[in-house]
Prior knowledge:
The protein contains 12 helices and 10 strands. It is of the alpha/beta class. Strand 4, helix 6 (116-131) and strand 5 (136-141) form a beta-alpha-beta unit. Helix 9 runs parallel beside helix 11.
Amino acid sequence: MEYRYFGLNSGQKLLQNALRHGGFAVPAFNAYNMETVQAIISAARLTHSPIIIAISESALKYMGDDILMGLISGSKITPNEQIALHLDHGKSVESCMHAINIGFSSVMLDFSKYNFDDNITATHDIAKYAHARNVSVEAELGQLAGIEDENTFGTKSVYTDPDSVYEFVRQTETDSLAVAIGTSHGAYKRKNADEKLRFDILEQIQNKIPYTPLVLHGASSVPNDFVETINQYGGNLQNAIGIDTEQLNFAATKTHICKINIDSDLRLAFTAAVRKNLHDAPSNFNPREYMDAGRDAIRDYCIFLIREIFNSANKL
Ligand code: G3H
Ligand code: 13P
Ligand code: ZN
């Protein structure tokens, strides 16, 4: 089914808009069930922000194609809401093609752990397929440490080499490029909160490819409030630490980073709210009560990021 049928926009339209106007980044929030899809879309609607609903391969497997697309269809998205549906960290050309065929408007092929030439060949293959259908493509150069998907856990990070980005983008025809400048996936990103992202590398990259929107993965800030609430109500997260919001705000408003990916923070918001809700109402056994609390917590945190950090409110 073509993505336009669902009222979606291509990812590239949103990202080029952000690059052209500057001063904001489009949030890409990961979803994996009805509550997360609803929370993300209502945050976008309440703030008039463009938004990307990011679905990992494991999230798609968890929901199933028909349930996900049923949720998207039932959300009654209209094109002027500027919402894209994006495959996050696609592991193969085939899985990207599959996502496009069921209605995704943007796909990421993550061949960042393979060598340069293999990354180019595969990315160009999916770019040809995607562009023939007006779907946009994201690729990655360099490697983030942390959980890249449910099966791999990379411990080393390799910064993106500014000298290779021009050739990579030229040969692959990718629409956007994910860069490694010191972020990593998950809730354990760094040893201390003061560690700086490599904005010097980012500047070199954007000078080489000024017309390509850049993407920041692994951008959760792991708010202390969420971690403390989780631990207060029976959880055990030790030394969880993320990217401070000042650096994120700088990336979103002062650089060519046009898409910022957030997954872990939404998981933390949801888990903190559910744990507290169950603790505060020990006799409750109606899941709707605590699922509702989790859904509201995600929506409110998305609104905070949109308004205060990514500056994407009212950018439709
Ligand atoms: O970047 C990876 C995302 O956080 C997706 O994680 O495969 O557990 O859904 P997941
Ligand atoms: P976080 O784990 O920092 O939320 O990163 C999410 C991400 O990059 C999804 O692709
Ligand atoms: Zn990612």
